[in-house]
Specification:
The chain is 31% helix and 18% strand. The chain is α/β, with parallel strands linked by helices and 296 residues long.
C-alpha cells in the first residue's frame, strides 16, 4: 500500500508542531530553568568532642572532620576526599589562630596536618602558623592553604571569622580596620592568598558570643556548642556561624541584641567583593551529628 504524500499545508502544520515540541522540551531550556545550585556547607556536632573542662578529644574531632569532608565532597573515603583538594606536590600552609583565650585547638591542627600528609605531602612542605606567616618560608611558597579558627565576637569587626583570619597576610593589618573591617574580603585578593584556599574550618566547639573591649573575654559568654563548620566557601561558612552567634545572643539576653559593631564584612564579602555566598537561602546547609540546641 503506497503512503500518501503530505500536502503543503499539512507539511507546514506538522513542522510547526514539531518545532514547538522541540522548543518545549529543549534540554538547554530545561537546564536554564533549573534552580541555582546552592553553596554546600557542613555543620557537624558531637557531644563527646570536648569534656566539661573544655579538653578536646582527638579521636572524636578526627572523626568529625572526616565525616564533614567526606560529606562535603561526596566521597566515603576521607583520604580520597582530601585528595580532591590537596595534591602530593602541594606546599601547604595551615592558617590557624593563636589568640590565647580561644585558639584553634592543637588537636584539630594535628588532624589537618595528618590528612594533608595522607595526600602525599611531605612534612617539610607543611607549616602551621598564624602571626608569622609573612616571614614563614612555607607560606611564602605555598600552593595551598587550609583556613581554620574559632568563631568569636570581635571589638573591631563584630565577629572574628574565617574571613578575618587572613588579616595577617596583609603587610599592614590596620589598613583593613576602617568601617568595622568592612573590606576584609579584599585580603583574599592579595597575591599571596588569591585562589589558594582549599578548605575552611570554622571552629564552633566553645564559641564566644559576647565581649567588651579590644581583647574582651569572659567564659560566661562561651558555651559548649561542640561543632565544626566546614566548606570551600569562607563567606558561606562565616554566614552560618554568624547566624548561630546571633541566635545564641537572643537566647541568652532574652531580646534581640545586635552585634556592635555589626559583622558587615560577611555580607559585603558577597555583595561588594563577590568572594562567596552570604545569603543563607543560597546555602545548602548539611547538618550532621548532635542536633540538640543547634540554633540554626
Amino acid at each position: 500500500m503506497s503512503k500518501r504524500k503530505l500536502t503543503r499545508r499539512e507539511f507546514i502544520g506538522t513542522s510547526i508542531i514539531t518545532t514547538a515540541g522541540i522548543m518545549l522540551f529543549d534540554p538547554a531550556k530545561i537546564i536554564l530553568g533549573q534552580p541555582e545550585k546552592k553553596t554546600r556547607v557542613v555543620l557537624i556536632r558531637d557531644q563527646k568532642v570536648v569534656d566539661a573542662k573544655g579538653k578536646v578529644n582527638p579521636e572524636v574531632i578526627q572523626k568529625m572532620l572526616d565525616d564533614a569532608v567526606t560529606k562535603l565532597f561526596d566521597n566515603d573515603d576521607p583520604v580520597k576526599a582530601w585528595k580532591k583538594i590537596i595534591k602530593a606536590d602541594d606546599v601547604v600552609g595551615i592558617k590557624t589562630n593563636v589568640w590565647n583565650y580561644l585558639r584553634t585547638p592543637p588537636e584539630l591542627e594535628q588532624v589537618i596536618k595528618n590528612r594533608v600528609m595522607d595526600c602525599g605531602v611531605l612534612g617539610k612542605n607543611i607549616s602551621i602558623d598564624d602571626r608569622d606567616i609573612l616571614d614563614n618560608p612555607i607560606f611564602k611558597k605555598s600552593t595551598a592553604l587550609i583556613n581554620t579558627r574559632p568563631m568569636r565576637t570581635h571589638y573591631w569587626s563584630g565577629v572574628g571569622s574565617l574571613l578575618k583570619n587572613y588579616i595577617m597576610f596583609a603587610e599592614e593589618p590596620s589598613d583593613y580596620h576602617d568601617d568595622s573591617c568592612a573590606d576584609l574580603a579584599a585580603i583574599w585578593k592579595l597575591p599571596n592568598v588569591k585562589g589558594k584556599t582549599r578548605l575552611n574550618i570554622l571552629v564552633m566547639l566553645t564559641p564566644l558570643f559576647n565581649s567588651v573591649g579590644p581583647h574582651g573575654f569572659s567564659s560566661e559568654y562561651t558555651w559548649q556548642y561542640k561543632g565544626l563548620i566546614v566548606g570551600t566557601d569562607p563567606v558561606a561558612c562565616d554566614a552560618v556561624g554568624l547566624k548561630i552567634i546571633e541566635t545564641k545572643r537572643k537566647e541568652y539576653f532574652k531580646e534581640n541584641r545586635p552585634l556592635n559593631p555589626p559583622a558587615k564584612h560577611i555580607a559585603l564579602a558577597d555583595t561588594r567583593h563577590h568572594l562567596g555566598t552570604a545569603d543563607l537561602d543560597k546555602i545548602e546547609l548539611i547538618k550532621l551529628g548532635w542536633k540538640e540546641q543547634i540554633l540554626i
